[in-house]
């Protein structure tokens, strides 16, 4: 699980699919948006590349 380096809280990813629907209610092209949800030490949710995520957060193995 990705965790914020400062607060150690989980980092959440929101995936949103935007579909173009015509008058017959058929789905057309799809645009997918990825937003990373902030932790306390971040300013807000934002789009970011994996390199930026690695700078702000760290991968921690979770015990199940």
Automatic annotation (TrEMBL):
Top-level taxon: Bacteria
Query: What protein name does the entry list?
Result: Uncharacterized protein
């Amino acid at each position: 699980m990705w965790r914020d380096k400062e607060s150690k809280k989980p980092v959440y990813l929101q995936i949103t699919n935007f579909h173009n629907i015509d008058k017959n209610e058929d789905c057309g092209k799809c645009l997918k948006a990825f937003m990373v949800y902030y932790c306390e030490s971040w300013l807000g949710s934002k789009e970011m590349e994996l390199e930026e995520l690695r700078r702000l957060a760290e991968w921690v193995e979770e015990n199940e």
